[in-house]
Amino acid sequence: MNIQFSKYQGTQNDFVIIDNRAGNIHLSEAQIQFLCDRRKGVGADGLMLLGNAVGYDFSMTYFNADGKEGTMCGNGGRCLTQYAFDQGIIKELYHFIAVDGPHESKIDANGWVHLKMTDVKAVEKNIEGEVTFYVLNTGSPHYVEFVDSLNHVDVLGLGQMIRYNERFKNEGINVNFVAQQADQLFVRTYERGVENETFSCGTGVTASALIAGIEKLGEQKINIETLGGKLAVSFNNRGDNVFDNIYLMGPGSLVFNGSMKII
Fold this sequence. Notes:
The protein is α+β, with helices and mostly antiparallel strands. The chain is built from 4 helices and 17 strands.
């Protein structure tokens, strides 16, 4: 089978994207693993299918690099919006459906994609010894821990240990370490499914921003620095661990188009 694909990246979180509006693309876990493999295939943190859905401009189906269908991917949603635009789906405001429900998105004059995220209605605070961490779902489940500095944090080692501990190992969790830097947050994330640190995680920076603003009610905007570049998150803190009007903002751009024969 010859696959036509595009590769996009959002703050260096990269994706293979395939137009499946005809509904004729059915990939196995092994084929997705192959396409995402950085030595044998195209190389990506995940793969997305652009599809049709009644009542929406398009649908988003996301697969992790391990070949399994994933939960919501924020950077992926921004990249898929840009891909839809590049494929001729031209809208001032997009409405699409993903695994966690409906989303809105738009592309601003500077080329940043604004993606409306699902509301958050619960945040769990945990204190274990000297470590305080939070667990919440921003379309994907996240662990958030604030640290004084990220210079000496073993993101891969600690992230893997937390992701596979007794509590989280069955479903998995994405692990975020966050440091306050002047007027922005610096976030590094270990992602389940990729099973490694990625250069950026959209739902992860969203979760981190919400926790950073958890003590302040009302509308907020927080700037984020990741290894892959800059993002921003705006939201409304309604109190009692409830957040709505959440937007993830950042770039999503084409890397290249190609085709590959897979078996």
